[in-house]
Design a protein that fits this description.
With 455 residues, the protein is of the alpha+beta class. It is built from ten helices and 17 strands. It is 22% helix and 25% strand. The protein starts with a helix and ends with a helix. Bound molecules: zinc ion.
Length: 455
């Protein structure tokens, strides 16, 4: 009998190790929403709790509770308090961590940004730990708290839906799909019809691009019709200020084309009306702009009225989704950005599509490189750099004439850095401002994330 019990216990441990924690053992099919503030300077970061509440549904995977992707600037771990078992984890990035690399942060002033974490609602008290990568990319734990979801300190707002979610594409239960939620900003009530058309347009653009085209059945697409009082969003450099739904503004982190939402609570109050894994704000503007932060937000302008630029929003929409869904790094290095030394030298970036190539034997996309391809992979960089940035046709022509065009290797110039970072292919949607597809490494990284969320 003892032996049988031992075998049973062993089997239980083995099953847990093979499958991870079981959703029904630890969680209810609801969302525990944790609103936080991140405050600090270039080198200091303090996280504080603002509000904790329970939302009536949960759209995430019921199977993949432990995050094995190793993406994002931060990493959340949730432990069952009684058994000290890791029951949930997620990687994510924040506006604050980007802000820390800006010249403003270098002046040693303090700023505060909101962030919201959504996890399945635990049945019993849990311990939350947040770890953040240091400049060497090691995850360092720096925030810890206990939450009892049954306590009076957790709000249970009445389940009144302010906005009714509309389905654009539906392939099955939100627990088994990547749920993409499209939110409008800067559309007045009269302009919402236009928003619906924009949603349809961008959905078509996305699912015409690989790997989304092949994996379309892994997605649901939803939208909410949320009007604003005035048309357009804030554009400080033109002294134009509107009534954004979520504090959405151009000139985020003092970069004109960078558009981010700064009223995080309003954003999540509205987004909570629909199931989602990924939030995408389409804003009513014809001024070039957008942004994307891993597991937080993507934004894109709706249209371009300059005839030659009509395709630009299509480029932006897919590019920014690459950041938000796949934590893909920018592969370009010749366009101005908001950051100072975003990637420190001699440190391997965690993003799947750029490398410091410190050791070519352990290149993270080595399985996609042919043995005959040299590393680093030579290309005519000096000539490319001599062409003006605006000459995109000339640049593309030059790339296409390269010996290693269409080959996966390691090409110098990536992640805003001309010298010490490398990208996987000569061209990619994360490299050039064009409708070029994602390179094979970016595609394979996106496929991994899509599968993780849709199991
Ligand atoms: Zn790429």
């Amino acid at each position: 009998m003892k032996r049988l019990l031992f075998i049973f216990a062993f089997l239980q441990v083995w099953l847990w190790a093979a499958t991870g924690p079981h959703f029904d053992t630890y969680f209810l099919p609801k969302t525990l929403r944790i609103d936080l503030y991140q405050t600090g300077t270039k080198t200091e970061s303090i996280i504080s709790i603002d509000d904790i509440s329970i939302e009536p549904t949960y759209a995430g995977s019921l199977t993949n509770l432990i995050d094995t992707l190793n993406l994002g600037q931060h990493y959340l771990k949730v432990y069952d308090l009684r058994s000290d078992t890791l029951i949930f984890s997620r990687g994510f990035s924040t506006i604050f961590s980007e802000w820390q690399t800006t010249p403003e942060a270098a002046q040693n002033i303090y700023r505060t940004f909101g962030l919201t974490l959504r996890i399945p609602c635990a049945k019993q008290p849990v311990k939350l730990i947040i770890a953040t990568r240091n400049r060497q990319n090691e995850l360092v734990e720096h925030f810890q708290t206990k939450i009892d979801p049954n306590s009076r300190f957790v709000r249970r707002p009445p389940a009144v839906q302010r906005y009714q979610p509309k389905r654009l594409i539906y392939h099955g239960s939100p627990n088994q799909k990547v749920d993409l939620l499209l939110l409008p900003d800067g559309y007045t009530r009269k302009e919402l019809r236009r928003f619906r058309q924009d949603c349809q347009h961008f959905t078509k653009v996305l699912f015409n691009t690989e790997p989304f085209k092949t994996l379309q059945d892994k997605f649901n697409v939803w939208y909410l019709e949320v009007p604003t009082q005035t048309s357009g969003i804030d554009n400080p450099r033109d002294n134009f200020f509107s009534h954004s739904n979520y504090g959405l503004t151009f000139n985020s982190l003092d970069l004109d084309r960078y558009v981010l939402p700064f009223d995080n609570k309003k954003l999540h109050d509205i987004a909570g009306c629909a199931p989602f894994d990924q939030l995408y704000i389409i804003f009513n503007s014809n001024k070039y702009g957008g942004g994307g932060i891993y597991n937080h937000i993507a934004t894109c302008y709706a249209r371009d009225t300059i005839p030659d630029h009509a395709w630009w929003p299509d480029y932006v929409f897919v590019h920014e989704f690459g950041h938000a869904l796949g934590d893909l790094a920018d592969e370009y290095y010749s366009s101005s950005v908001a950051y100072d030394e975003f990637y420190p030298p001699n440190v391997e970036p965690w993003e799947p599509n750029i490398t410091a190539l410190l050791n070519s034997q352990s290149l993270k996309w080595k399985d996609l490189v042919k043995p005959s391809t040299p590393l680093p992979t030579p290309w005519n960089k000096t000539q490319y750099d001599s062409l003006p940035y605006q000459d995109s046709a000339g640049r593309e022509k030059l790339l296409r004439s390269e010996k290693y065009w269409g080959t996966v290797g390691a090409f110098q110039g990536a992640g805003y850095v001309s010298e010490y970072l490398y990208r996987p292919e000569l061209d990619c949607r994360m490299f050039s401002k064009s409708l070029t597809p994602f390179c094979r490494v970016c595609q394979s990284a996106l496929i991994k994330v899509i599968r993780f969320y849709s199991e």
